[in-house]
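Below is the data:
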Amino acid sequence: MEEDASALDSILLEEESYMPPPHNKIERMRRGQLIAEVCHMRIRFQAITKRKDELKAALVEGNRLLVDTKCRLSEQDSLVQLIINQNEKLTLEAHTLLEQLQQEVGKNEALRQQALEQDISKDAIVSCLLQEQVEQRSFFNNIIRMFKRELGISELSQVVTDLEQILESNNCPICFSPWTAEGTHRIVSLKCGHLFGDSCVRIHLRFSAECPCCKQIAQVEDLRYLFGIPVLYAAPSQNLQNGAAAGEVHNGASEEEVPNER
């Protein structure tokens, strides 16, 4: 632009050199007006040139901003696509977790039902054991009454002591109730040799894999039923009948012997 302005100045100087000198006042005025117009055009030309440079710089800046905007839009598109992919992945994981949660709820419900059934069976076993204990105590009291009739008061304490020792030796160490020769509380043995009631030791082994007495490792598969071991309260009603029958025979024999002694 400066080269164009200098070229215009040189042309103006050449024109002035070729122009004849003014002869009168009018020519001088016209020449002055022409020079003023040329100066004015030069100023306008410089302003246009400056404006052109500014527009060119603005265009370059606009192109740079456009490129930056395109880059940012591309990055935002990539970020949006990544967010969409992550959202789909999280949705899939949420569905999977929901299915697993539903399965766990079903399992928990089944376990709760099993626990309720076990509680019911446990209550039934405890009730049965309590009933057996009542029957066994009744049988024990009947034996004591029978011995009261047969023996003197001085011998009764020794008999009671012997019966208590027999009762303790026939008790399950878990529930402290006598075991039986048959049924749910029949006598069983572990590998270590300790004896228990069948139902009691099975319930214990559900929660602990060791012997209740010596703490050795034990399992349900180690249980062995014992046969041929005398059990005092195997059948209370039958024992009571046998004891009563023996008492009647003994009473009859005593009554027969008394006259002979006399």
